[in-house]
Structures are given as C-alpha cells and as structure tokens.
Design goal:
Length: 468
C-alpha cells in the first residue's frame, strides 16, 4: 500500500480581489497603490466624469506620481473604474471605504452620510463572503454604527465583517505613504480578517512596516488624534511667534533650538500662516464636537484654542499688509504668490493662502494670484480674484508682494529680478520660507511671522512694521 498524504503542499489561495468605494484623493491613490502591489482592483464613484478621467489615466487632482501609477496599472489590466457598485462588489472580496467625511453645514460634526451610504451599498450587493474595511477619517463610534447597517443590509447567507484601517496620507507624498506606510493599524479585526489584511499589505509588512492591532474605537481615533497633535504643534509655535514679534526675537532660530530636543523634534515647528487643507481643520473640529458629546471637555478647550490660534494667523498677514501700505489696501496692487494650502498639491480646501487673498480683495485691493498648480481649483472657488500665468506677471507692478505658499519656485526665485518688476519693495513672507538676507541685499524689506524684519538698506523709506 502506498502513502500519498504528508508530502503534498497546501493549495495556495487566490489573491483577494479589491474594490475601492470613492475615488477622491484617498480612494484614487489607494486603488492605484493596491493595483501596484499586484491586486486586481476596481474603483467605484458616482461621478461618471471622474470615472472617465481615471480610466484614461488622468487624476482629477494634482498628486506627484499618481497619474503614472494609474496609467501603468490600467494598461496592465489590474485597475479599472466604474459607476456600478453592484458590479464592483460582485467581483471583489475586500471592500475599502474611501469616501469623504466633510464638515456638516452649520456644525463642527462630520457628515457621515457618504460613509453610511457606502457601507449600505456594499452590504446590499454582496454575493459572497467579504471584508469591509473603513479607511475614511471618522468620529469614534462610527464603526459600531456601520456594523449595524451592514448587518441589516447584507444577505443572510453571506459572512461579512467590518473593520477599520485608518489612512495616513500626506498630500504631495501620498503614493509613497500608501506603498511604504510608516505604520499599519488594524481595528476591530478577528483572526480571519487580520490574516486577510496581512495578505493585502504583505509587501509593506515584509519591508518592515509595523502592524498595530487595536479595538475598533482606538483605530478610529488614531488618525484624527494624529492630526490634532500636529495641529497643536503648529498652533503652539505660532503662539510663540506672537511672543517673538513682541520681544524682537526670531521664531525660526527658536524652533531650530527646540527641534534639537529629541522629545520635541523640528517637524511642524515652522511658524507662519498656519494649517489648512481638507484634513486638519475639519478633523480637529470633528474631534472637538465628538469630545463634547462624550463629555471630554478638556480636549474641547484645547482644540478650540488650537483652532483659534490658527485662524488668527490669517488676520496677522492681513494686518501686516495694511500696515505695509499705510493703513489701507484700497486700489493697491498686491501680488500673491501661492493659493494651495501647501506646496506639491492643487488643494485649496480651507487654504489660508486663498483666504488671505480673498480678504485683501474684499478690502479693495487689486489682487493678482499665481500658483504653479492650484490656479484652476482656486479660480473655480474665487473667480473674482485676478490670476497670473507666472510669478513674474503676479509681481509686475505690485505695490506689495505676499508669499503665502512655500513652493520651491518662490523660495528659489531671484529677488533682484523680481525687484526690478515690482512697484513696491516690501514682501510679506507669510511662511518664513524666503532667504531674508538675500532678499534684503536685493533691495527688499522682508516682513516675516515672528521674525525681526529684514529692512533693505538700499531703500531709505522701507521701514519695518512697528512692534506693538
């Protein structure tokens, strides 16, 4: 009798097929990255125009490296897009929820209608066992509510589980952050679902990315808490910048000194115009709202101060502009360099730069904005502002120049060449990103945020803003 049992290898399971619900900033990046990791991926969106753009390899927003990633994986047949959620759910095993959670109108609370609709849509169209993975940033307690929605909507014969895997993308570095994350958090997983997620993220885990397995509420809190901490750090250094203004100190040197302390670190200690974008402002407000609901009032008070300090930086730039132009900006031409909330993106959601530009326009200034990537998104939001095709066009004839986004094009500009174009020799460096000494040597007066003004020796009437 011949034995055949012990030498057989276990049959290798097929790779899970993936759907990504929502193809905005998070979803489009996640779908392309999952395809790059070797999975068959289908992205779902309700917007036919966006689906058509993505199918043709065009990202509907600016993100370095993403269009190339989309095109290569669409061409390879690993990535496709559809408006049909039933089709996507039917052919997939793991479903990532990547829809937006914007701030509710008239409230600091997060609008969860898109997340709830995505969970319900997935569950209702399930044809086989599945794992639903939340990636959207949500208030703590959302996952438990979604589990109830899924249990109600899913067919009785289907085994489905909902877990949370928060995203940690940085705009401008989102592709690398997805392919090579600095940590992975799995929330509310069973042994089966954890094993499945480890298969999905096998490559980054093999490359050394640590995995933290948590309960559902902890996983929901990780991203919003990280954003709140970073926002707090930014608002802290901006509060200290006000002290520096009053005392005649230099906040940039101070931040360098603080940054050498390993407990503090130098990142996010750049004083200036403050934070904006689609994440930090709405996330800290949503956490503030949820903390208040839970009775965690110390967190509410702290986050309120963080938000107020941040918003106050915008007014500080407006005040500097008024003082630099003798108390009024009416009928004065102001060249604004930057519209995006930070460089390497075209995102103008809650952009401090665009907010300041619009405020100066409302005070009667002739504002001309230039941004290397965000002109289109800015113009759709504020069509009444003037827009330039180049940095030189924005500065040409300007009575005042204001740097509001720290693009390399601005920090590396030739101040002498710009000085020959401008009518006024004052520049407000709202991001403390310019080499003030070289601009000063070229004849400019540089007004920073929490820094001693650099006054051009060659221009007798260019005086620093008085310290009150």
């Amino acid at each position: 009798m011949t034995s055949t049992s012990s030498t057989k290898k276990p049959k290798e399971q097929p790779a899970p097929r993936i759907s990504v619900i929502g193809t905005g900033y998070l979803g489009a990046t996640h779908a392309a990255a999952m395809a790059e990791l070797g999975f068959d991926v289908i992205g779902v969106d309700t917007d036919p125009h966006k689906v058509a753009e993505l199918t043709e390899g065009r990202a509907p927003f600016f993100e370095p490296g993403l269009p190339e990633l989309i095109r290569s994986n669409v061409a390879a047949g690993r990535l496709r897009f559809t408006t049909d959620i039933a089709e996507a759910v039917a052919v997939s095993d793991v479903h990532f929820i990547c829809v937006g959670t914007p701030q509710q109108s008239g409230s600091f609370a997060a609008n969860l209608s898109y997340v709830e609709a995505a969970a319900r849509g997935i569950a209702a169209h399930l044809t086989h066992d599945a794992l639903i993975v939340g990636k959207s940033t949500v208030p703590v307690g959302t996952g438990a509510r979604l589990r109830a929605i899924v249990a109600e909507a899913a067919p009785a014969e289907v085994d489905v589980e909902l877990v949370w895997n928060p995203e940690f993308l940085r705009e401008g570095k989102a592709v690398d952050d997805t392919l090579r994350p600095d940590r992975l958090v799995f929330g509310g997983t069973s042994e089966r679902s954890e094993a499945l997620l480890r298969r999905v993220y096998a490559r980054p885990i093999a490359d050394g990315t640590p995995v933290l397995v948590a309960d559902l509420p902890t996983a929901e809190l990780v991203k919003v808490s990280a954003n709140a901490f970073l926002a707090t750090k930014i608002s802290f250094i901006n509060a200290i910048a006000e002290v520096c203004d009053a005392a005649g100190a230099d906040v940039s040197l101070l931040a360098d000194a603080l940054g050498h302390d390993a407990r503090i670190g130098r990142q996010f200690l750049n004083a200036g115009l403050g934070f904006g974008g689609g994440c930090l402002p709405k996330d800290i407000r949503a956490l503030m709202h949820r903390s208040n609901e839970l009775g965690a009032h110390a967190a509410v008070g702290l986050l309120q101060q963080v938000d107020e300090i941040n918003m106050g930086r915008r007014q500080r730039v407006i005040d500097l502009a008024l003082e630099a132009l003798g108390g009024s900006v009416l009928n004065r031409r102001i060249g604004v360099l930057g519209a995006a909330f930070k460089p390497h993106t075209d995102d103008v959601r809650d952009s401090p730069a665009l907010n300041v530009a619009a405020a100066l326009h409302l005070r009667g200034a002739q504002v001309v904005v230039y941004d290397p990537q965000a002109r289109g998104t800015a113009q759709r939001l504020f069509p009444t502002l003037g827009y330039a095709e180049s940095m030189e066009e924005a500065v040409d004839g300007a009575d005042l120049t204001v740097v509001l986004t720290e693009w390399d094009e601005f920090t590396g500009a030739d101040p002498a060449r710009l000085g020959a174009l401008a009518s006024g020799s004052t520049v407000i460096d709202a991001r403390n990103c310019l080499d003030a000494a070289s601009w000063n040597a070229a004849g400019w007066t540089v007004l920073g945020m929490g820094r001693v003004p650099e006054t051009a020796a060659l221009v007798p009437d260019a005086l620093p803003v008085p310290i009150h």
